[in-house]
């Protein structure tokens, strides 16, 4: 293995971890909702798939249009996370309705999209760099899946310690992360 190839692998690994950290942070908040292990498994896989699809779409679009679209996708992802976090916060204070957004069906699609939409803009730049696309996409997907699982399992443990306050903490994490994406 050449030094150039090893350097590219290490760079891709760091990029994959950086992209997966948002999945970890958001999953930490969502994991506080007392989600079953089977659902955690499915959510992690879906987020991993989205972390492969979105950069791939970014690569395709990046070759066709300018980089300005990256700012729009980042803004949309941030707004989606703020919306989900706000819903969690409001439901924590609404004692009649204890069910937060279902992370199943269309809700799972929206969740996966909101967590991985920032990887679209990474795909825009990857399309111009000549990186090994298949390797990058597999690393992004695998890393985000593992970090999602870790975040949700840790969130489950924290929920047991904090009880009802974990929903407030989880919603705050989602809102904070969404605001960080928008303004940071």
Automatic annotation (TrEMBL):
Keywords: Cell membrane, Ion transport, Manganese, Membrane, Transmembrane, Transmembrane helix, Transport. Pfam families: Mntp (PF02659). Its main location: membrane. The keyword DNA-binding does not apply. The keyword Hydrolase does not apply. It is found in: Cell membrane. It comes from the Bacteria. The chain crosses the membrane at residues 6-28, 40-66, 72-93, 105-128, 134-155, 162-183. It is a multi-pass membrane protein. Probably functions as a manganese efflux pump. Belongs to the MntP (TC 9.B.29) family. This is Putative manganese efflux pump MntP. The gene is mntP.
